[in-house]
Amino acid sequence: MPEAPILALPLLEVEGLGIHFGGLHAVRDVTASVPAGQITAIIGPNGAGKSTFFNLISGFYQPTSGRIRFQGEDITRLRTHQVVARGIARTFQTTTIYKELSVLDNAMIGHRVRTRAGLLDALLRTGRERRDEEESRVGAMRALDRVGLAAQAGRPAGALTQEGQKRVGIAMALSSDPKLLLLDEPAAGMNPEETVSLMGLIRELVSGGLTVALVEHKMSLVMGLADGIVVLHHGQKIAQGTPGAVSRDPAVIEAYLGGHAHGGQMGQPGRAAGETGGAHA
Ligand SMILES: Nc1ncnc2c1ncn2[C@@H]1O[C@H](COP(=O)(O)OP(=O)(O)O)[C@@H](O)[C@H]1O
Ligand SMILES: [Mg+2]
Fold first, then answer.
1. DSSP 3-state assignment of 238?
2. d(CA 30, ligand 1 centre) in Å
3. Which atom of ligand 1 is nearest to the CA of 232?
4. How far is the C-alpha of 132 from the C-alpha of 41, rounded, in Å?
5. Are the C-beta atoms of 87 and 179 separated by less than 8 Å?
6. Beta strand 236-241 with 65-70: parallel, antiparallel or unpaired?
7. Are 195 and 183 in contact (CB under 8 A)?
8. 233 with 243, same domain?
9. Whose CA is nearest to atom 17 of ligand 1?
10. Are 143 and 249 part of one and the same domain?
11. Which residue range(s) make up the domain with 51?
12. What's this model's pTM, rounded to 2 decimal places?
């Protein structure tokens, strides 16, 4: 018998999802699901459409085809803050934290940006918003506690290690108390030790009931972490399955070895190079 994950209901389902920019089909006809209570990795070479996939799910981009369902509800046409309100939060490939502000202020901004109208709203303190501030503070502190940063709340975010700053970024997303957390290349810019620590955090969050989908272009990095893997290539899904099955899939091997040498690192567990997309020489 192949590894049989405990039957988990899909929290998120996409069907025939696609978006094109002019003639470029960044995501094309993707049907996939994210089971509740698991870690699902979206992998694929640089430019495969992974970040775009997250942009579609989180409402940053409107799909040109297909549907997105979350907890059975059609969320295809919802705006970002409405998606957040349903329980989906994300981090960005390039984490934008405010280094000179405190860790707590960052987490509070994360809460406000995600639950209010926008960044400007979050930065301006109007009378109406002062009432929301206490709510933001409570949500932010709870999120910092979950990522192990409660004791650092008063420090400037820029004083933390790279990994600490990543945790701030994750706290910013967690401050809206999501059911599904989307992480775009969480290990980018980290050394192997930091990567192991961050993976531990992701596992802890999932043990606590969170569902995680994460984007990564290095297959080796997700082999020991993900319950299931979705492989994108040129915007299309070419495989979905357990890490074992996916790593043996000929189409996946071809995608990784064909002209994307930097991604062809299957079978090298634990190698955590810290490049961001396109940063390699
Ligand atoms: N807003 C956009 N306008 C035009 N092209 C885009 C846009 N966003 C992404 N793309 C293109 O879509 C493709 C997939 O990009 P992306 O999703 O960022 O890839 P990945 O995250 O897998 O590296 C790339 O060719 C990229 O240039
Ligand atoms: Mg990307």
1. strand
2. 15
3. 22
4. 35
5. yes
6. unpaired
7. no
8. yes
9. 49
10. no
11. 8-87+178-259
12. 0.85
